[in-house]
Design brief:
The chain has about 375 residues and is α/β, with parallel strands linked by helices. It has 13 helices and 14 strands. It has 2 domains: about 5-245, Aspartate Aminotransferase, domain 2; about 245-370, Alpha-Beta Complex (Aspartate Aminotransferase, domain 1), CATH 3.90.1150.10. Helix 4 packs across helix 5 (about 85-90). The longest helix is centred in the last third of the chain and has 19 residues, at about 245-265. It is globular, with a radius of gyration of 21 Å. The relative contact order is 0.16.
Length: about 375
């Protein structure tokens, strides 16, 4: 699905130099490269505060902890997303409230979102799935109306631009109260291990986030609040600094792959290519088709026979997962999420794909659907 080796070979000299520098300096925890990367990422996102952390899941937990939510408080979350978005809520004693997603762009459905708000709702966690922003202008408007926090899960959409109706633009993750991203190796900006970061505009809240991620302290051995230990490794920060310089290029390359797929599949009535919304650019963390007529699984098997990887993101919606069924009342209309889990199929998409590889993949997809 992602060829990290070829990507590394393209930037090998810079990566090796950055890693060796960390080893030579032996500042393996909170070394200068961590602060440097945080500042570079803040500049890229045009936001004052970036707090690196151990991984994206940690980032979501730290974000929710920083907002002072109490056990039993309700947090709205799309039913069609990765489990990390919800598992931290369960760990903190919060009550996830599942909301269906839009059948075209896969992100949280705005009308369902507002209908799910109760007097106990305290936060909304929109997920920018597959690389395209949720409708954040509408979400923020609803959040302000009901005095709710918004925590953007932008792990799949780093670098995406959001276009407001007043013609202003912001990066994914910088629109809500807090944004959270992941640097898992396969992400558009991925390190060579685990890593994550939080984006916060408010300085006071950013200070609290930093404390929580560092054992609840802002002075060593003086612990003001309950915290966790979640740090971005210095080696990973050094690697990410190199790769951040190429992020826009990586996004362009992914869009080129997506355009190739679009052209190959246009007009085929057995599949639906990814929709594009007018309010967000698409960074194509995944290129996800909808396969009609119950043919998804058969197509996946046919592709595997030809040595072509593909993935189902995600085969079971959150409300149907055994670990989280207790949060589902059965009254919520989550039909789109359930249908998508049987239709979606993501094809390989990465920055080093050749036209020959793309021709091979697309030809076999089309042959399998005849």
């Amino acid at each position: 699905m992602v060829d990290l080796k070829r990507q590394y070979e393209d930037i090998k000299e810079e990566i090796d130099f950055a890693i060796q520098k960390v080893i030579n300096e032996t500042a393996f925890i909170n070394g200068p490269q961590v602060k440097q990367f945080a500042q570079e990422l803040a500049t890229y996102h045009n936001i004052d505060n970036v707090v690196p952390c151990g991984n994206g899941t940690d980032g979501l937990q730290v974000a929710l902890m920083s907002l002072g939510l109490k056990p039993g408080d309700e947090v709205i979350v799309p039913a069609f997303t990765y489990v990390a978005t919800i598992e931290v809520m369960a760990l903190l004693g919060l009550k996830p409230v599942f909301v269906d997603v839009d059948e075209n762009n896969f992100n949280i459905d705005i009308e369902h979102l507002e209908a799910a708000i109760t007097k106990n709702t305290k936060c909304v966690v929109p997920v920018h799935l597959y690389g395209q922003c949720a409708n954040m202008e509408a979400i923020v408007k609803i959040a302000e109306k009901y005095n709710l926090y918004t925590v953007e899960d932008c792990a799949q959409a780093i670098g995406a631009d959001y276009y407001f109706t007043d013609n202003s633009t912001k990066k994914a993750g910088t629109i809500g109260t807090i944004g959270v991203t992941s640097f898992f190796p396969s992400k558009n900006l991925g390190c060579y291990g685990d890593g994550g970061a939080l984006f916060i505009a408010d300085d006071e809240l950013a200070g609290k986030v930093r404390m929580i991620a560092n054992h609840g302290q802002n002075k060593k051995y003086y612990h003001e609040i309950v915290g966790v230990n979640s740090r971005l490794d210095t080696l990973q920060a050094a690697i990410l600094s190199v790769k951040l310089k190429k992020l826009n290029y990586y996004i362009e390359r992914r869009n080129s792959v997506a355009a190739f797929y679009d052209e190959a599949f246009k007009g085929n009535e057995q599949l639906t290519i990814p929709a594009r919304v007018k309010y967000s650019s698409h960074v194509f963390h995944q290129y996800t088709l909808k396969i009609k007529g119950g043919k998804r699984d058969a197509l996946k098997e046919r592709l595997a026979e030809k040595g072509i990887p593909s993935m189902v993101y995600y085969p079971i919606p959150l409300h149907m997962q055994n670990a989280y069924k207790e949060f589902y009342s059965g009254k919520e209309d989550l039909g789109v999420s359930e249908a998508l889990s049987k239709e979606v199929l993501s094809l390989p998409i990465h920055t080093e794909m050749t036209d020959e590889e793309l021709e091979y993949i697309t030809s076999h997809v089309l042959k399998a659907l005849v």
